TrEMBL record:
Domain Peptidase M48, chain residue ranges per copy: 74-297
Entry keyword DNA damage: no
Parts of the chain that traverse the membrane: 12-35, 41-57, 151-172, 192-211
Gene3D superfamilies, A to Z: Metalloproteases ('zincins'), catalytic domain
EC number: 3.4.24.-
Family: Belongs to the peptidase M48B family.
Name of the protein: Protease HtpX homolog
Length: 305
């Protein structure tokens, strides 16, 4: 948080450090386990290192491409840039790049592995639905993610899930086509090795999933607090949150499913209608909890005034 006037959050900092330490341990155990079940050690190192570098350096480009978002200039989106300029000046922080995704799903997200590569992106559906001060409150929320550096931590944390998911799919396909015949040197059957890789990958993915989800829920509350105190208008952020979550029910299921993988980075989760596992292990705290926190901040600011 150095160099920013966003409200510090030691709880978030502690959780980010703990999450990274635990993920490093999971990464190490993951590599050791893959080598133990028969994968070539250099192949494992190359695979893990390759995904790590790609995920870290290209996270902003991958997210923007997947969302169909494009970076916009001040000439293309003058109002959006003006609001971000004002908030960055208020927060005393460098201005990130600005992007717009052409989708009716009302949302916003921040991504990037560093402040220099950071980008704050809004959807056309969000801009169309919110009043100017509500949009500014959401932008403050997203800028706080950049200032807190939790965007970087979430980017790194999501890397293991990508590797584990890739190995799980590759292992299942290999096992399906190779059969359970034993190798020529009386070693384990290729399909048996593949299934062990699937098991190890699934466990690693599950652990990283739980760790990142726990951090994601807390960081959203932290960003709400930081944005509310920076703007001094928590009720406006609450109004934007209520409007977005209410309008989400009117979005076609197909559109919601397309963007649902980005829930961990969104201002508000985009759940497809009906039962969803994401409702059991949520990326965001309940809306009621977020609104209650904003109401408490309003009372606190009122007493201070």
């Amino acid at each position: 948080m150095a160099g920013s006037k966003f409200r510090p959050d030691r709880g978030l900092t502690g959780r980010m450090v703990l999450t990274m330490v635990l993920l490093v341990l999971v990464y190490a155990a993951f590599v050791v386990a893959l080598v133990a079940v028969g994968m070539n050690v250099w192949l494992v190192v190359l695979l893990v290192a390759g995904f790590a570098v790609l995920s870290y350096l290209s996270s902003d480009k991958i997210a923007m491409f997947a969302m169909g978002a494009k970076e916009v200039s001040p000439r293309q989106a003058p109002d959006l840039h003006a609001r971000i300029d004002r908030l960055c000046a208020l927060a005393d922080m460098p201005k990130p790049r600005v992007g717009v995704a052409d989708t009716d799903v009302p949302n916003a997200f921040a991504t990037g592995h560093s402040r220099k590569s950071a980008v704050v992106c809004v959807t056309t559906g969000l801009v169309r639905r919110l009043e100017g001060d509500e949009l500014e409150a959401v932008l403050a929320h997203e800028l706080s993610h950049v200032a807190h550096r939790d965007v970087t931590v979430m980017t790194v944390a999501g890397f293991l899930g990508i590797v584990a998911g890739f190995l799980t799919q590759a292992g299942l396909r290999f096992a399906a086509f190779s059969g359970m015949t034993r190798s020529n040197n009386n070693g384990p059957a290729p399909a048996a090795v593949a299934l062990l890789v699937v098991l190890v990958s699934a466990v690693a993915w599950g652990l990283s999933f739980l760790l990142t989800r726990a951090l994601s829920r807390y960081r959203e509350l932290s960003a709400d607090r930081a944005a509310a105190y920076l703007t001094g208008r928590p009720s406006v952020l609450g109004s934007a949150l209520t409007k977005i979550t209410g309008d989400m029910a009117r979005i076609p299921t197909r559109d919601l499913r397309q963007v649902e993988p980005f829930n961990a980075f969104f201002f508000a989760p985009a759940f497809a209608k009906g039962f969803s596992l994401s409702r059991l292990v949520a990326t965001h705290p309940p809306v009621e909890k977020r609104l209650a926190q904003l109401s408490e901040i309003s009372r606190h600011l009122g007493r201070g005034a």
